[in-house]
Amino acid sequence: MNLNPLKRGESNATSAKFDRRAFIVEIRALIALAIIVIFFSLLSDKFLQYSNLVLMTRHVAMNAILAIGMLLVILNGGIDLSVGSIVGLSGVVAGYLMQGAPVPFTSHVAYPNIWAVLVISLIVGIFFGWLNGLLVAKLNIAPFIATLGMLYVARGFAKLITNGETFTKLAGEPNLGNTGFLTTFAAKPLGIPLPIWVMIVFGIVFSIILNRTAFGRWLYASGGNPRAAALTGVPVTKVNIRIYVLSGFCAAAVGVLFTADLHAAIPNMGEFSELNAIAAVVIGGTALSGGRGTVRGTLIGAFVIGFLVDGLVLIGVSVFWQETIKGAVIIVAVAVEEIQRILERRQKLKSAS
Amino acid sequence: MAKKGTIAIEAHGVSKNYGATEALKSANFQAESGKVTVLFGENGAGKSTMMKILAGIEQPSSGEISVFGEKVSINSPAQAQALGITIIHQELSLCPNLSVRDNIFMGREKLKRGFMNYSHEEDVTRQVLKQLEEIIDPKTKVENLRLGLQQIVEIARALTINSKVLIMDEPTSALSSTEVAVLFKVIRDLKAKGVAIIYISHHLEEALEISDHAVVLRDGQIVASADVADIDMEWVVSNMLGRAFKEQAHKDSGRAKGRNVLEIKNAKILERGIATSKLYAVEDFSLTVKAGEIVSIYGLMGAGRTELMEALAGRDDFASGELLLEDQDVTKLSVQDRIKAGMGLVPEDRQRDGLIQQMSVGSNLSLASYMSHIKRGFVNRSAEKVKIEEAIKNVRVKTSGRNMPIESLSGGNQQKVVLGRMLLTDPKILLLDEPTRGIDVGAKGEIFDLLRERAEKGLAVLFVTSEISEAMNWSDRIVVMSRGHIVGIFKPTEVTREQIMSAAEATKEGVRA
């Protein structure tokens, strides 16, 4: 019989326990990634080749950037289904501007330089994210519905702009002063494709935002208990709008990178990528109920999904099986945590009696 | 800081209407610097509404507020804070996923060059917790703290704000008597510094002990006010109820005690939450409850009462031991099966564990007995309706109809709904965890009257309480728990408050030594 008060109840409850649960979830995602890497490297010599790793990481990067934006939204208990369409719309806007945009009410055609193209494309993403935020935060429309609607609206605009076609003249012309779109946004500094650099920078910046700024604190607070956060003076409405703006911004960045990567602006670009982004966030240990999750976990999640899919392609698994396996992995990733919880509990009871 | 006796905050002719309901009718209220003003009133009397108005959470329909003589309109909690008004909420307003430190500085984060200044926040947190005599690491997540400590965090947050007016709405509902004593010391310090404190509590004695001036609200109107030195409990209670009130003295009920309904044999229950821990919240617990008997379990916070109740209800497992319901072994049954077998649990935290906020009064009432209205796969709505109407009448829920949202009810009436829901399942035994937490004297009496009525008809009742008077007044046997063990079983007619108190406390201190 142990009645020492320091060992009972209080000491347990009041010491700052290192957050074991969150740690285990991330470790587990890392282990899953390790298993994927080992498994595919045994089945294919190409898997671990430098060029293949770079290629796969470039795919991962696109999804990871979207997933970081998605993480912010999910941390607040929301969801953003419109990011895939915003990728398409921003990419198409970039392509449209590179082709030359007729100035309304004149016979002039404007050829903005590539930095202006970048900024306008990003603003388009930010604007649609802002609309999402207003619908959710000001009109109290459920995030699922608001962003589902925006998914169709943004995709519709993308198709309207191109009239269903694809823009391929993205190189620009020296005499118009708008060259460099492809060389800049599909550049490979130090031999590594730009999307990977962007993923790294976004990863660091958003990590700092979440952990080191007041905005990050507000986000975790309003995701954990919005009522309590509001009562203590956290600007919950502002936070709620801002996360959708940031998600739209991330999506627009992917849109521009994607267009440059493909050398073409395709209106269907980014279709279904919102689902991959959600999967990455969830595999990374983020709770859909809000308040829990990290950038680090999300990045690991994006690698799990990306390496898995590319690995399956590499060893020649059929497209149909790829989807089935990807789905199963998502379910298993979440189920494992619950199973572990049940096992732990049984173990505890057994060892006690 | 303002001189003692200055009027710090004043509400003049304040009214508040929610639809057709008048929560406040042209009420005048004031609180002075350096004094504790206590606000008494039954549930629904308008206390919380008044406090919400002063704290900027609600806006008055008419009337004026002045702070230090200046007319102001307080439109948001942030604005109230800027005016020096802070509130400790009755229902905890913490983010469970964040640390103690983050909760304390929520909404007013300390920055250094644009980034979070965690070390400063932690220092302040440690300081204020030290003042409250609690050793909690600032980085502990709030969800890992027991309810009492969460309330301490809520109080600590208010203390870190240098406020001129501090509103405390039921600050002690989850605190142990030691913790209350520390809080009172802190309140006296604040008083000395000239803070105006407005105090609300359902513990009348406790409130009288700490306050200087008492104000009573009834039906949205101020009906009496006096210096605490000039009044007593009777004054408070009769003004609250608007009639004379005599405390229900215990008489031996003379109820026939029937067969054994519930038998707990050598129960051991593990501490919750911490996976690696092999510590017991409850050990060697054996108890028998007979039909028609009301048994209370008294103990301080952390005595293991809640863990015991959860395990009895089937939400937690016995590590070892047996649970018999009329000789049937129910140890392994799930919550649903236990309810079917005739056990009902009324949880401690009715907001979190008891009510479905989105559902109506009626749906909340029929939640546990829903299955009995299903015929051939469909709900027999008319039968359900009859049962609900009956329950509203039987447990005396004050509501304008079964379709009203549950949120429209006062705390006491919400508790009656939770109780009524379990009574609808026709239980053999009812388990109640702190059935009167945060509800007023009148409703308390009504709830225990209901239990007594049912006991006359053979229901066995086992309830947990942290108020000795409840155990003394309403139960046939008092089981005192401390640190997971039974330390005494008393008959209310043969024991004094002091004896119970010392049984619960002395063991605690003895163990500590």
UniProtKB/TrEMBL annotation, chain A:
Protein location: Cell membrane
A Gene Ontology cellular-component term: plasma membrane
One of the record's GO molecular function terms: transmembrane transporter activity
Membrane topology term: Multi-pass membrane protein
Record keywords, A-Z: Cell inner membrane, Cell membrane, Membrane, Transmembrane, Transmembrane helix, Transport
Transmembrane spans: 21-43, 55-74, 81-98, 110-132, 139-158, 190-210, 243-266, 298-321
CDD domains in UniProt: TM_PBP1_transp_AraH_like
Principal place of residence: membrane
InterPro entries to which the protein is assigned, alphabetical: ABC_transp_permease
PANTHER family linked: ABC TRANSPORTER PERMEASE PROTEIN YPHD-RELATED, ABC TRANSPORTER PERMEASE PROTEIN YPHD-RELATED-RELATED
Protein name listed in UniProt: Unannotated protein
TrEMBL record, chain B:
GO MF annotations, alphabetized: ATP binding; ATP hydrolysis activity
Pfam families found in the cross-reference section: ABC_tran
Keywords in alphabetical order: ATP-binding, Cell membrane, Membrane, Nucleotide-binding, Repeat, Sugar transport, Translocase, Transport
InterPro entries hit by this protein: AAA+_ATPase (IPR003593), ABC_carbohydrate_import_ATPase (IPR050107), ABC_transporter-like_ATP-bd (IPR003439), ABC_transporter-like_CS (IPR017871), P-loop_NTPase (IPR027417)
ABC transporter domain sequence ranges: 9-244, 264-508
Record's keyword annotation contains Lipid biosynthesis: no
UniProt KW Membrane keyword: yes
Protein name as catalogued: Unannotated protein
Species this chain originates from: freshwater metagenome
